[in-house]
Design goal:
- The chain is mainly α and 152 residues long.
- The chain folds into two domains: 31 residues, no CATH class; 99 residues, no CATH class.
- Helices cover 45% and strands 3% of the residues.
- Strands 1-2 form a two-stranded antiparallel ribbon.
- The protein is elongated and about 55 Å long.
Length: 152
């Protein structure tokens, strides 16, 4: 039976995506297509942080620390010269997978278009860069990185 393209469950509730005047609603959740400010965002998981201030702050802290860790993984030396080449390859592969996985999670969080998430991601990358390349560390003259830095 043709019902105009709407799928109905057994209880008669429509399962079709809802749309607003600008077409930015999906299954009852507002999908922002421009930057906005506020705690009413969906960050990484459905229903999280759920408009709760404490959970929003936790989400911002998580994005911040993931951004810091990405920079530290990109610019820190973990492998000693003269190590077993097979072990070096495995460690570099694990570090690369961790770094890329974190980078994708930060990117997905940024796709919430929340201004706070954007700011903490940039600040996290800046702090991670500062800590990993500042005067706190001794410079390496031969090969300063285990992994090449991410390029844009």
């Amino acid at each position: 039976m043709d019902d105009g393209g709407h799928m109905h469950g057994m209880d008669g509730m429509s399962m079709a995506p809802k749309s607003s005047s600008n077409g930015t609603m999906m299954m009852g959740h507002k999908m922002h297509m421009t930057f906005f400010w506020g705690k009413d965002a969906l960050i990484l998981f459905d229903g999280w942080p759920g408009g709760k201030t404490g959970m929003y702050v936790l989400a911002l802290i998580l994005v911040f620390f993931m951004s810091v860790l990405i920079e530290l993984l990109s610019r820190t030396r973990f492998i000693k010269p003269g190590s077993n080449p097979v072990a070096v390859g495995l460690v570099q592969t694990l570090l690369h997978a961790l770094r890329i996985g974190l980078a994708y999670l930060v990117m997905l969080a940024l796709m919430s278009f929340n201004g706070g998430v954007f700011l903490v991601a940039v600040l996290g990358h800046a702090l991670g860069f500062f800590v990993s390349t500042s005067a706190f560390k001794k410079p390496h003259h031969d090969d300063p990185y285990d992994l090449p830095p991410l390029s844009c």
